[in-house]
Specification:
single chain, 518 residues, alpha/beta, 7-stranded mixed beta sheet, two-stranded antiparallel ribbon, 10 helices, 9 strands, coiled coil, vWFA_dom_sf, VWA domain-containing protein, VWF_A
């Protein structure tokens, strides 16, 4: 058994997934905030439309009041038309009742919109809270990732900067929510104003009904005493003039209220314009992020396609491949004195993983070797590769093998290259040490006193294997391509072992990877 030194562990590629997840979190936050701003702007537009409709209805009411005033003025000149004027006043009363009902409906609608606005505001607050919680969770995830990936500080710094921007944007959206809260309070104030206006209209309607009742009574008295009660008719006309004056004052107050509502409408429009601009900016940012995400996805897909045809940096190639599996005694040990029951199963799983990773594999064969080499299937006949079924067959067969004896790499390659004439194009070698038996020593080296050390003997035997590959087995032949040799090593405790496997793969256009101790 040889003294071996541990080979550095290879680092796997995984940070692209982390970066994509962070970018997905930032995009989700932008989408949530954009949705909140859009809903708020839509609610404000609805409120503005309702205010415009109310303004139009108030203008119609003012027009009706102006018509009533003209009618009352004409009554001063034509006392004979008092009955017709009273009829017109009755129509006005009905109109006022209709307007009062409409205002009541508007008030009900405004209250409903106020409740809806409050509900949307609550939903927006809940969404902001959820976004904050997701932001906190993302920050915790980034903190955990930072502990695991010291080599990716630059990517994490970028992710933190993006999360900081998202946090600033969330605070900005929270300020917008506070602005919407103030707007909701203003809407409530406006609703209260509408309620007061409805109450005023109700009072006017009651007063008008009272006046109509009084006028009707006076008309009855006038019809009975028309010629005898001229003085009373003049008094009633004066009362009508006083009522018209009061109605004119109420009209002026309504116009002042309408002007105030117009100012509030202008303010609301300015706020909606500002919110719309912010939503447009957010949409532009989201579109940019989506473009970046698409680019990263393309890069990731390309990387994934490349990585699917590689195993720990080894290019997975070959249509007809032979797998040389070292089953010497050391493949069942952790070191010279310590048995390791997990090492041989790990070797088997690695062989299966390599087989599964070769996208072009059509035919295969397996050679197990220790002090000698033998075929695992059918005395060297090519086996058709049938996906997982073939992988399971190799696993089952290898689990029946027990590591024992020396390491005769020469015999393994000699048997494998017997298949070169039938299309062999790739060899995958799985081993953990230098050769310890086989041809390559001179008689003087075999009789050396003191005997050669195990490392010296393994170095000489390994050089003989490489020379034989170069001069005989794998030398260029017309009509035959050079066989690619890839090497996978396990648990190195000596530099010479790694150097041998690396040099063997390099000389034969292949790659070498070392599996670290679990």
């Amino acid at each position: 058994m040889r003294v071996r030194h541990k080979q550095p562990t290879l680092v796997s590629m995984w940070m692209l997934d982390v970066f994509c997840c962070a970018l997905g979190c930032v995009t989700l936050l932008f989408l949530l905030n954009s949705r909140m701003a859009t809903e708020s702007a839509k609610a404000n537009r609805t409120a503005l439309l309702d205010l415009e409709n109310t303004d139009k209805k108030l203008a119609a009411a003012l027009g009706a009041l102006d018509a009533t005033k003209l009618k009352l003025t004409s009554e001063q000149a034509e006392r004979g038309k008092l009955a017709a004027a009273l009829t017109e006043l009755e129509g006005v009363r009905l109109k006022l009742m209709d307007e009062a009902r409409q205002l009541a409906d508007q008030l009900k609608l405004a209250r409903t919109e106020k409740d809806e606005t409050g509900r949307k505001l609550a939903v927006a607050r809940d969404e902001a809270k959820a976004a904050q919680e997701r932001l906190d969770a993302t920050q915790l995830d980034l903190a955990a990732i930072e502990k695991k990936a010291g080599a990716t500080a630059k990517e994490l710094a970028t992710a933190r900067a993006e999360m900081t921007d998202a946090d600033l944007l969330l605070k900005k959206r929270q300020k917008d929510i506070e602005s919407l809260t103030k707007k909701d309070a203003a809407t409530a104030t406006q609703v209260d104003g509408l309620q007061r206006l409805v109450r005023t209209k109700d009072d006017e309607r009651v007063a008008m009904e009272t006046r109509m009742s009084s006028a009707q009574k006076e008309l009855t008295d006038l019809e009975a005493r028309l010629r005898a009660t001229q003085k009373e008719l003049d008094a009633q006309l004066a009362a009508a003039q006083t009522a018209a004056k009061a109605l004119a004052e109420e009209l002026a107050a309504a116009k002042a209220g309408a002007a105030k509502a117009g100012e509030e409408l202008g303010t609301a429009r300015a706020q909606i314009k500002d919110l719309t601009r912010k939503v447009d900016d957010a949409n532009v940012t989201i579109i940019d992020l989506q473009g970046d995400k698409a680019k990263l996805a393309d890069k990731y897909n390309k990387f994934q396609k490349d990585s699917e045809s590689r195993f720990a940096g080894v290019a997975m190639t070959g249509k007809r491949a032979v797998f040389l599996v070292d089953m010497s005694g050391s493949m069942g040990k952790r070191d010279l004195q310590t048995l390791d029951s997990t090492k041989w199963p790990l070797v088997i799983e690695t062989v299966c993983k390599v087989m599964r990773s070769i996208p072009t594999l059509e035919r295969y064969q397996v050679i197990v070797f220790s002090s000698s080499a033998k075929w695992l299937f059918d005395d060297g006949e090519w086996q058709s590769y049938d996906g997982e079924k073939s992988v399971e067959g190799v696993r089952t067969a290898l689990l029946k093998v027990k590591p024992v004896d020396d390491t005769n790499v020469f015999a393994a390659f000699e048997k494998a290259f017997a298949l070169r004439t039938t299309g062999l194009d790739t060899i995958y070698l799985f081993s953990d040490g230098l050769p310890t038996s086989g041809p390559g020593l001179t008689p003087a080296q075999e009789r050396a006193n003191p005997p050669l050390s195990e490392t010296e003997q393994g170095t000489i035997l390994g050089r003989h294997v490489r020379d034989t590959l170069d001069r005989t087995w794998n030398r260029p032949v017309a009509g035959q391509s050079k066989v690619r040799i890839n090497a996978v090593g396990f648990y190195f405790d000596s530099v010479e072992v790694g150097a041998f496997l690396w040099a063997l793969a390099r000389d034969n256009d292949g790659s070498f990877v070392g599996m670290s101790r679990p």
